[in-house]
Amino acid sequence: MRNETLKNVITAAVILVVAGLAVYYWSAAPAGQAPVAGGTVPAVATGTISESGTVAGQNYTVTAYYPKLSGVSAADAWNAYAATLVQSQVSDFKTAVSQNDVSLLPPSMKSLANTFNIIYSMDGVSAGYASAIFNSETYLIGMAHPAHLMTPLNVDLRTGAIIQLADLFAPGADYAQKLSDLTTASLLSQIQSGAYGSTPDFLSQTGGASADPSNFQVFGLSPQGLVIHFQDYQVGPGAAGPAQVVIPYSGLKDIAAPGGFLEQ
């Protein structure tokens, strides 16, 4: 129950963080315009936040790695998004530590450290866009095992605007149903090959790939296609870890926003 509650709280916080970034840094130029031919591809370096201390009498450590861009005009916007996202999650972690009731735990456990770690992976980076997934791991003293969460960051490097999933599709397109059909077919194929330790019944019971836009918000753009990431427990047992599906851009052209990033 503790783990499930924490995941729900962190998931809600991530949604608010990404929405807040979009509102705070939104550019007047629309995201989702046609990718530029040529242009400068930004360099990617790694920023680090590392700290330890005490909150409400409990020890904690934080280690976070995040991507920093340089060499393009939108680098400052990207770097601000990334730093704000990480700092917000670190703040949420410290709040969770302060609210963690360890009064019933044995003294030997109370001296342990609460830990929060972030690593990242780049789905893609080009002259037109940059896409990263932030993978966080939270452990609070007393938890049976750490909680994991993925948070996306997709930015139009020509405008500095955050790319929302809906920006990629034509107005009125039923993109949630299309993504559900394509990801479900891919996941079933992967499951039948032994991936994720899941079963077709498990996938249907979770509803994690059903035609609900919220199921596909952890996404990225890559040279190979649109990448949909699924959180732990979303489409398979937690022990199997996260799943992902890469949808070739050719499979989305019928609902793609005219001149948008899916028209590659």
**The CATH fourth-level homologous superfamily of the largest domain:** Fervidobacterium nodosum Rt17-B1 like
Class from secondary-structure proportions: alpha+beta
Q: What is the CA-atom radius of gyration, in angstroms?
A: 19 Å
Counting H and I runs of at least 4 residues, what is the number of helices? 5
CATH architecture of the largest domain: 2-Layer Sandwich
* Overall 3D shape: flat
Specify the biggest β-sheet.
Answer: 5 strands, mixed
The total beta strand count reads: 8
DSSP helix fraction: 25-40%
Q: Between the first and last Cα atoms, what is the distance in angstroms?
A: 44 Å
- CATH topology description of the largest domain: Heat Shock Protein 90
- For this structure, what is the CATH class of the largest domain? Alpha Beta
% residues in beta strands: 25-35%
Low-confidence stretches: 1-20, 22-37
Could you report the average pLDDT, rounded to the nearest whole number? 87
Oligomer state equals: single chain
User: Helices and strands, in N-to-C order?
Assistant: HEEHHEEEHHEEE
Count of individual domains: 2
Q: How would you describe this protein?
A:
With 264 residues, this protein is α+β, with helices and mostly antiparallel strands. 29% of the residues lie in helices and 28% in strands. The protein has 2 domains: 2-163, Heat Shock Protein 90 (2-Layer Sandwich), CATH 3.30.565.40; 168-252, Actin, Chain A, domain 4 (Alpha-Beta Complex). Mean pLDDT is 87; it is low at 1-20 and 22-37.
